Amino acid sequence: MTATRTNADPGLFGPDSVTWQAHADPMMWVAGIRALYLQALHPRAVRGVMQNSDFRRDAWGRLMRTASFVGTTTYGTTEAAERAGARVRKIHRMLGATDPDTGERYGIDEPALLLWVHCAEIGSYLHVLRRSGFPLTDAHADRYLAEHRHSARLVGLDPASVPANRAELDAYFARVRPELAAGADAHEVDDFLRRPPTHPLLVPARELLWRRVARLAYDSLPPYAHELYGRPAPPPATVTRRLRATGALLRLIPARLRRQLPPRHVLRAMARLGPAARPAPYKIGRQAAILDRPGEGAAD
């Protein structure tokens, strides 16, 4: 699986990566909402968001900016990815938050906070993709996590401190679990995601489409998150069936149509690298024979 223009810059990941194939899947939108729910359970992290952003009035803009960052770092040139990372690091260096209980002032670029945001995001992408039927083996999953030490570096983390496989990610979540809580900020995020403000004419669409997507993202959270938020979820088997049904439905939309949606990162990557760079789930399957061989497919 190679690009037709070998002299072009493949970017941070390149067409041979798991990330390149996975991030073009439409279930990434459900995964992104799940990541917001999970990230909001870290009181210090969500406080930094609520005190420094216009989340309440521009949550859609925040989602789009995150999607643009992921698209740029996945499919853009190395230079574009590095610029995007430098911009994020610059913004984070200038921002801080205040603990209302202790008066402590802290920077939102604390490594522990950056690591939580990274793991909640990448872990959510991986969880939703696999659970919805995207063809990722255990070896692919480990490789995906290892690849995202690149994106962790871009936001200011030491790659060596970032979980590089499923076992390390599970251990990280177990370690941080006692720090999580659903405070007022988390419930505000929850309320917003369930009922985002919208034009009156779009309220029916919000009720029909958005709330179902947000509910599915919430239901796919780990059980401890449901306990913290105080809202139950259907049995895991039911959630898995719904994720797979949603994934199957969204994947029926031709990729050539989905790629036309702004900001068209995949189309620009294909123009740069050639048509063989087109991401597709079946290309993951081609890697399985290699990645699943004993002694191969380990974390990079």
Automatic annotation (TrEMBL):
It comes from the Bacteria. InterPro entries: MPAB/Lcp_cat_dom (IPR018713). GO terms for molecular function: oxidoreductase activity. Residues 20-251 form the ER-bound oxygenase mpaB/mpaB'/Rubber oxygenase catalytic domain. PANTHER family: BLR2777 PROTEIN (PTHR36151), ER-BOUND OXYGENASE MPAB_MPAB'_RUBBER OXYGENASE CATALYTIC DOMAIN-CONTAINING PROTEIN (PTHR36151:SF3). This is DUF2236 domain-containing protein.
